[in-house]
Amino acid sequence: LEKRNVFEQESEERYRLFFQYNPHPAFLFDHSNLNVLEVNQAVLEKYGFSESELLGKNILDLFHSDDKNSAEEEIRSFAFGVNKTSSSRHKKKDGSVLLTENTVYKFRFRNQILGLAVVTDVTEAVRNRESILASLEEKDTLIQEIHHRVKNNMQIMVSLLNLQADNAMTRELTSKELYGLLKDTESRVFSMALVHNELYKSRDLSHVEFGGYLNMLLQNLWNLYGVGTNVKHEIQAEELQLDMNTAIPLGLIACELVTNAVKHAFGESGSGRILIRVFRRDDGIRITIEDDGKGISAGWLAEHPDTLGLQLVKILSKQIGGEFELESLRPGTKFCIRFPEPEKKT
């Protein structure tokens, strides 16, 4: 009998050491009334209560109000000697919520039915999982959006090529003229590709900073057409974030008008200046492109309405709900595109 008592004391001491030093919060409670009899140090650290605040407290009071009934049903239905694990929400002293996995063991000890609950805090794991799932969903949406963008832009490219082909069919082309048409096509395709490049570098993947985009577009046009240092360009742009559906038409418009100025505005001297301004007004956004070259009269514009470049500018201006107009300067020409500022979707 004495040996048995010694063995029981040693077993109880081992149990207490295991209970107290368990890194997971552990509760010992009376199964009949669910009052807490003992807690370990991990409970005090995790929940923020003192030991005196917890002893004698009904363990259900730690559960979120929506989880209390189901938790009580589960605890009452446990069989002896069987571990039962369930998920729930617990309340800390400061009112914050823990997402938990609870393993409960029901047993007899000295003619008393007790419950031992060991709690694993899975709050961070659940949040991480939710974040990963949200990220995967966002990526799926993004992939669909990219496919949609590529499809739309392929359609725009086909339309541009058809316009160019129809325009070329109206006259016999020399090799030099054909080369020029291909260069124009290259510049248009680049202006569209550049929008995509800027989109994928931006954080929200849906808007580009238009002033920076214009800078890179003009650098490419200068390289593509071999424009010398005699033709200067300047961009004065307010901070403006544009979505792809607006940035691509505007990029193509800028490409057409700047290319036209580079090719035709400065005559044999080949020197001049191109100024692009981007700014807001109460009724929307203005983009002006002006040069100090030999100029285009409004009369000439009326007599040549069907040139490919002007067709594109008119079509693209209409596409963004804008208006396009020309002003004759002395010297030079000024084009102005007015359009409503798109609403930025969040």
What does this structure look like?
By secondary structure, this protein is an alpha+beta fold. It has two domains: 2-121, PAS domain (Beta-Lactamase); 176-339, Heat Shock Protein 90, CATH 3.30.565.10. It contains ten helices and twelve strands. The protein has helices spanning 2-21, 41-47, 51-54, 68-77, 123-169, 175-201, 210-224, 244-264, 298-303, 308-319, and strands spanning 26-30, 36-39, 83-91, 97-109, 112-121, 207-209, 231-237, 241-243, 272-281, 284-291, 323-328, 333-339. The N and C termini lie far apart (76 Å).
Question: Could you outline the blueprint of secondary structure elements for this entry?
Answer:
Layout (H helix, E strand, L loop, with lengths): L1 H20 L4 E5 L5 E4 L1 H7 L3 H4 L13 H10 L5 E9 L5 E13 L2 E10 L1 H47 L5 H27 L5 E3 H15 L6 E7 L3 E3 H21 L7 E10 L2 E8 L6 H6 L4 H12 L3 E6 L4 E7 L7
Parallel strand pairs: 7-9
Antiparallel strand pairs: 1-2, 1-5, 3-4, 4-5, 6-8, 9-10, 10-12, 11-12
Helix pairs in contact: 5-6, 6-7, 6-8, 7-8, 8-10
GO molecular function: kinase activity
Keywords: Kinase, Transferase
Organism: Leptospira ellisii
